[in-house]
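User: structure tokens for this one?
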Amino acid sequence: MGKVYVFDHPLIQHKLTFIRDKNTGTKEFRELVDEVASLMAFEITRDMPLEDIEVETPVSKANAKTLAGKKLGIVPILRAGLGMVDGILKLIPAAKVGHIGLYRDPETLKPIEYYVKLPSDVEERDFILVDPMLATGGSAVEAIHSLKKRGAKSIKFMCLVACPEGVDAIKEEHPDVDIFIAALDEKLNEKGYIVPGLGDAGDRLYGTK
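Assistant:
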């Protein structure tokens, strides 16, 4: 059964305050999202396996730890998810990056897949699916479906701000997926925005509104 992790680290909460602030400009917003993604990556990779090796220090030989070679994949949901990728890559530069593009059908309001590009060895990788917002959960649920139908067996979802409706949607459709969030907000409003939220993450990242 997947778990929900809400990060309460002071640095994450401090930076998230400025991400929420409507007066934060595009440049600062983009930098803050990048920084919070890096901080969250510390926790989301906590269970990565290690193996013992021997190294030669300037003084003597030492028994040490190194990552056991588990392959990672980072997959942003286009377009807002792109804002979180570089922050994770700063810590895990060897990770491969895939992309999933979705749009909302104007009649059914259901997410429709229009682009998917993933590493060739999907079944061998642990995937971190990233998107700044988890609102209705429709896009995240569909993106997880896209990964699974291409062979992904290990998936974690990471976002900045979520609401209970979105969390419940993932838990119902994909109970095996762990969810990592910086803040669990109150609710969705009648327009589908998270309250209090941070507005439209894509527009604020790229200055398109």
